[in-house]
## 1
Amino acid sequence: MTPDLPKTEMAIVEMTNAFRQENRLGTVQINATLTKAARDYAQFLAASELFSHEADGRRPADRARAAGYQFCEIAENLAAFVDSRGFETRDLARQMVEGWKNSPPHRKAMLAPGVTELGVAVVKAKGMEKYLSVQLFGRPASLQFTFEIENNTNATIRYTFESEKLEIKPRFTVRHTACSPGEITFDLSSGVFARAVGARYETRDGRIFKLVTDVDGKVRIELFPSVAQ
């Protein structure tokens, strides 16, 4: 059996999007530049008989950038299957996708919440019924967003964003540029019993977090634009 490779690639995209939807994530759209980067690398792996994410001495991000894809997030999955009997088109796609789903690092790439675009390539190795696949996820740089924190108090305020512990000094403004929306938590207490207080705020493009002091001396967070806007 000889699979129809273009149809196999489309089936991988279809199955990947179905998996993302099952996990309440948005679908990814085929991107021509990512597809070219994926195909070039799949062909290199087939010709060289090497198999790793850095077999050509570059990282997935390097290959995507060299192909002309400007990104703020990139992730790559590889797969290789051999069967002397050959493969049926959708069965080859299914085996590749199921293999990724059942591998934690590959599953993480498939379910990356911020990625929006995808390139997929499947190629046949010479002289055997061996097929290689490269799946390249991306989020374009154009989707980066910016938000600000204004500390209008007389205290240094600690906060956590994207698992990183940070602080902002009194009367300072900090601007963050991030790849995709996330959560930010402010620590408004101090001392041995310090703890993060208040809700976990969602970051979004253009949002400003203003830290102000109430008449009773407590720090309050004001959001602009407000949640209702």
## 2
Amino acid sequence: MPTQTFFNLPKDKQERIIQGAMKEFSQLPFSEVSIAKIIQHADISRGSFYQYFEHKMDLYCYLIRRFKRNYHELMVAKFREHAGDFYAGYLAFSEYYIRAILESPKFGFFEQLYLNMNYQLNKQSIDILFENDKQEKLVDVVSVADLVVDQTEVEDVFEFLHKLLNQTIMEGFWQEWSIEQTNAQFKRQLDWLFDGLKNHSPQDKERE
């Protein structure tokens, strides 16, 4: 997170710094983004930059957080719409999430994020999505009655699913898939997870 010094700045100066950072992170992979270029766009000194942010990753995570801060509430809403059904709720969330990313006016930023995503960036993205303890907890709105996990494992399952979702979006960028193709690929993987890979016999289906 930025320091309090950053938040004490006039709003127009905060926005100038953010826009300077967005310009660089929308054009280059994280590893190639130069702090020198960011401060040049923002018209601040290097010393000032380090008064506002601990390092480049600190700034980058803040940018991600600005876009993702409402997604936790969205997930809660989707699960409520589907009466806590795990599959239906997460599928509805994923469809909205994928469309929001691929239709975002900040498409270049997300393109660089996903095309150059590694373990650290994936984990940061997931941590940001679930970081606000003051928000309503997902475990309180999800039904696990029909699942083989209990309430204590729900957060681990969400982390796994969001890694899978990020991986699918990343593949979508690489393959230049449409929104519909990306949604279809994630749904296929979600179906594998929830239905399993077993070829059920007619007898099995009758017993079910």
## 3
Amino acid sequence: MPSGDKARIAIFASGGGSNADKICAYFETHPDISVELIVSNKAEAGVLKVADRHGIESVYISKKYWQHPEIILPVLETSEITHIVLAGFLSLIPDWLIKAYKGRIINIHPALLPNYGGKGMYGHHVHEAVKKSGDLISGITIHEVNEHYDEGKVIFRKEVELEAMDTPEEIARKVLQVEHMYFAQVIEGWINSQHEHA
């Protein structure tokens, strides 16, 4: 992508959208990066209301359509999307989409990969596994997306200290606070570094 072009982000999310909310607010007045589209695979996802609140276009795409590039790629192309941010998107990204946006899809995982990663390791499942293990350190990992769950190139990791008495819900809250603190800044740095090497 030429360095003079503005980066246009699509956020993919399945849940309430607290990360999406922070990301939208962060880039609201950014000169070089904008959030243009929010995509969800859940019709009732709170993230769709986040899109409304920020005046950002949103689209719900049901599970049956995710194997159809001829449906999904035009949606992204219409909004001239250059980068995809997965913010609590609970579905494997199809290979054809990874190829179309190679090196331009980023995900946040609520643990320190490679620990507590892979299929089935999302949301409360992660925090319950951390609690069960007795680990007193968890954290976040932000990584590029490839064809395998949670195995793409790591861009950023941040540890979160836990207390032995923390419940899975308390672990989740501590980790989410750190996600909110860093995710948008890491996205900005990641996109800027791509522009520098373009």
## 4
Amino acid sequence: MQKLSYLSSEKLNLIWSEEENQKIKKLLDKKHLVYLENEEFIIESGATKDQVQLKVTLTKSDKSYYYPIECVFVKESSSDFKETEVAFKMLDYLDLYWTNYFSEERNVFVPLDWSKHEFEGIHFYIRGFVRNLQLENYANDFLSKHGHGDYEIHSISSET
């Protein structure tokens, strides 16, 4: 198996326009509105000739809750795929996940490391990690004030 990478947006071609992303975001926000606690969804997507990726993040406005879920579809040598079709299937999968996540009182999580999933005839990889960016920033500030923290901790979305 090749090494999976969630690529930075600079290396990707857009799948959906900013307007389309906003429509998808509004639909997710509206569908799950009853469960949102001063939170919103953020949608990011892109593709290369070999992969399609999608990230749906649930985040509080103060960043005290930040839950990005990343999906990567890797083209197999003989397969032919349409980027938008693959992205919508992964989005449908994540929509079902969020429904389950909220109905189970936020106690259902995706794996921390890449895990292979199959949905509607496609295979893709998924991972996610709940973070408290607000607390992380406070901790970094505290460490900096006390002579520590001259190193960079990379986001889960770095190319790993």
